[in-house]
Specification:
Layout lengths: L7 E7 L3 E9 L6 E9 L2 H13 L4 E5 L5 H8 L6 E5 L13 H13 L11 H33 L14 H12 L5 H7 L7 H8 L6 H31 L4 H7 L7 H11 L9 H8 L7 E2 L2 E2 L11 H7 L1
Parallel strand pairs: 1-4, 4-5
Antiparallel strand pairs: 1-2, 2-3, 6-7
Helix pairs in contact: 1-2, 4-8, 4-10, 9-10
Length: 327
């Protein structure tokens, strides 16, 4: 018989529009569990009803699976109750038996697993770190969008037979940008104007002029590149605004950032991104190996019948790993 670790706990099956809650109250003498179930909508007022319903039954140990982004509003509201101990679990750990899957059974199944302490909790940092993480990930996505636009821009240059990227160190630097602005705004390429736009420290002036000779930009490519330029400029402004907000919110962890930047290759923004992912409370991880495993930078074990098989690193840490690799 499995040991009961929680005599009053709840399991939540969270969906986009529905939350099925099950409270399991176990008698300490008879070891018999009584289940109380109730459905709630995902609307704000009903989430507060869920919190009050749990408090009414003196249930402060709650477990739910991390379904998409739907768990976040539930977590945020339950977190406002100081006594509430919320455990978030990866969906792969709470899979129900096939053929017997319903929302109510799933909720009860989560409650039972939680009651016997058979679930591995996910790492959830404090609210301010979560907010910082959200902004950092948004910045990462904006940068990815800008990189995609830069690739499209260079593709259009290739299609138009403009080999500028082959003769300048940075196709989006000061010289290249000024030249392309002139090229896109004029029907005919004026070599004299182009020469004036080349930065004084540029060594390949003749090659730059040669790369533009006999180049012809079709109207469709001209329009496309102009639109991409406009979009990239807007993205630059958005990225800068997000970075300002990130630094403002991260100021309370300034000492931690300085400590991390003592490692060669890690600059301030990289330190902010690392802190936003792993937090500052390292007691969440028992060992350094556990942290590496959580971040997805170390492979798991796969051994059977005395044979060890090759295992790849996991897909975890999709925002943290790129920063660590680039540093």
């Amino acid at each position: 018989m499995l040991k009961i670790h929680r005599f009053n706990c709840a399991g939540l099956d969270v969906h986009k529009n529905l939350i099925v809650a099950t409270i399991g109250i176990t008698d300490k003498k008879t070891r018999v569990t009584e289940y109380i179930q109730k459905d709630f909508s995902s609307l704000n007022y009903d989430l507060y009803n869920l919190k009050n319903w749990l408090i009414e039954h003196k249930c402060f140990d709650v477990c739910m699976e991390s379904t998409g982004k739907y768990w976040i509003p539930v977590f945020n509201i339950l977190e406002t109750e100081s006594k509430m101990n919320i455990t978030l679990v990866h969906p792969k750990y709470v899979k129900a038996i096939k053929g017997k899957k319903t929302d109510k059974r799933d909720s009860k199944w989560i409650c039972d697993l939680f009651k016997h302490d058979l679930l591995k909790s996910s790492f959830i940092p404090s609210k301010d770190i979560r907010e910082l993480r959200d902004l950092s990930r948004y910045r990462f996505k904006l940068i990815c969008m800008r990189s995609s636009e830069r690739n499209r821009y260079q593709n259009s240059m290739t299609v138009s037979n403009i080999a500028l990227a082959s003769v300048v160190s940075d196709p989006f630097g000061k010289t290249a940008t000024a030249i392309m602005n002139e090229v896109l705004s004029s029907e005919v390429i004026d070599e004299a104007k182009i020469t004036k736009l080349i930065h004084g420290g540029c060594r390949n002036k003749d090659k730059i002029i040669e790369s533009l000779k006999n180049s012809k930009i079709e109207p469709d490519q001209r329009f496309k590149m102009t639109e991409i330029q406009s979009h990239m400029n807007e993205l630059d402004k958005h990225i800068e605004a997000v970075e300002v907000e990130i630094i403002k919110r991260a100021s309370r962890y300034f000492d931690d950032f300085i400590h991390i930047t003592e490692i060669d290759g890690i600059q301030l923004m990289s330190a902010v991104l690392i802190i936003s992912e792993i937090g500052v409370d390292m007691t969440q991880f028992e060992t350094d190996k556990q942290l590496c495993c959580w971040a997805g930078v170390s492979p798991a074990n796969n051994e059977s019948a005395g044979k060890k098989r090759s295992v790849r690193i996991s897909k975890a840490g999709q925002y943290l790993k790129p920063v660590l690799v680039q540093c």
